[in-house]
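for the record, two folds in this file. i put them one after another cuz i was lazy. first one right below, seq on top, structure tokens after. the second one comes after a little note so u can tell where it starts
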Amino acid sequence: MKDYEIPWPRCTFDGRTKAMSAAAALDKLRVEHRLFEDSVAQIRTAPLKLPTGEVTSIVVVIAQELENSPSWGVALASSTVFTGRNIAGNVETFEISLLDRAWVARNGTVELSDGTHLHAVNVIPTPICRELAPLQRRIVYWTIKLIRAEAKCYRGRATKDLRHLDYSNLYGLRLPTLKAIERYIRENDPQLSVSRQTIANALAACGMRRPRSGRLAVASSTATFSPEFD
């Protein structure tokens, strides 16, 4: 079968704080009517570099109704390892990269790309300790303000030192172009002179989707990804 592409944020349910297992992700897809009788789910992972230099992985369980139809997914907690029960009944720990392109049966059994079958697959959330440079903090602050995502991203009052920033909510935000962010920063913080590459690096450092350029860029600066995971 053809591998599934990681879906756009608007087609991804946020299960990072509530879904740690492949089975829980399947349940969510069923509830949302995105997993059908003839559907097969696949797990995809993608590396995510943290400001500390550590690398974790985004993990998404994906369902696709038809070969050419849009795929839908559930984002699990970012992880570097996962656990699974082998056919002997023993629980083992594996590197998260082994989970990429694994297929998930409707009963939650996971088949890795090497043919290994595992039950009760659970990701182990990465303990994240983030430290951004002062310049990066200001860039992130103004970017969030530009897209009006303060209510989603802060656990309290929005401040430039980001003391109340909830980093777990940064992944999936839809951003305008780097040019638009650069212009907004220049207009609102004239003393902060930064290049578009510096902006891109700061956003990537905390897991924010890097803006596209040209006609594929998000036109609206107010659109955000805010899925519900009930």
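(here's the note) second protein begins now
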Amino acid sequence: MAVWSTVNLSALPEDKRLDAEYFQPIYIQAEREMSGLPHKLLQAIVSDIRYGLYLPPDYTEDGLVFVRGLNLCDNGIDGELLRVPVKPGDVSEHYRLRSGDILISRSGNVGDVGIVDDDLSGATFGSYILRIATKDYDPIALYLFLKSRHGRLQISRLQTGGVQGNINIPNLRRLIVPLIPPNLTEKLNQQYEKHCSARRRSQSEYAEAEALLVSALGLDRLDLTLRLFCERTYKDASAAGRLDAEYHNPRAQNLIAALSRDRRKIADVAKLALRRFRPVSGVEFQYIEIGDVGSSGTAESSPVMGEEAPSRAQWVVRPGDVITTTVRPIRRLSAIVAEDQAGFICSSGFAVLKPTDIEPELLLVYLRLPLVCELLDLHTTASMYPAISTSDLMRIPVSLPDAPTRQKIVAAVRESFAARREANRLLDGAKAMVEEAVLSAKPTNN
């Protein structure tokens, strides 16, 4: 069915855009609804908007915390926050985050929004992010509006570019922001604080599960000193089938020995699920990409039409499956497929594991242990996109704790997931409050 809009010349934006995407009826309707209500343009309520920094990609354990575009997702700022080898004093205050700053992804997953809390104050941010500092407008209220339907529609409309969408600052300044009554602002802050409390509870429960597993496996008592050099015999190198120093370093060998005590491999506790997906033109499916996996051990998804299916959309997943990235496994991107994600499709960048002699929650925590991810990384090949083969993945040693500890780990992960669902519910409720306020506000002639 054809869809079109009739637009007057006087309705063209300042940059005289004429592309059909900009004038989709859904965007025009949203603009009419916003323009007829008490509002201000974004440029009137911000003290600063700026692009992030291009910093060296060689992330380290020390240095300045660096927020990347992929850290912005539906739930705000999530995922592993890396550090760059830069001293705080070497970065201008203009590029240092403050509590209440709002971050918008300007490329990639365009329009994902996050708000900076006290823990991230002083960090810096990447070039794929726009930072907004507000004035005379509650930052939490603005954050929730930008995540609501009318906020996301406006941001989506401002995208430019063909192959990869982008948002520039001049266009963003024209974004229409509703005037939210003080009593509602107070309610939004209370709701958002409940959301943050639930998220912290989720993170705490997962951290407890991880600590239990690390202690049960004795990984907290290993000698993991990284030696500058080591010696190995030809027999050792021949048996391993490799000569790289990283693998033969005592740190890696001590880790492998500790995880091999049960003489079991991942293939002994889980099967590799190879359910091939065949897209059908005109039929929509839910697609899980690598960027959809967050630090909580859960995965988001997005709808895709069959005729637009990317070539990497290959595997069908079922509830209880554990998906783990084979590309850059050091990033700890693994997740459990939820009950409501049955039949979803995931990228070929994941290995889909069906647990057979291990609880999905325990397998998830095991695969996300930093030391296990370090071991997975030792088996990657290539430099631009280092990846581990599924055959090597299935040969990774696995060691399991006793039954009581397994039960405690599973219970903690489930509690973590329940708290995360509660956090999502509270955030959705806050966005709904903003949306209701926008639609119920009395029109103005100003």
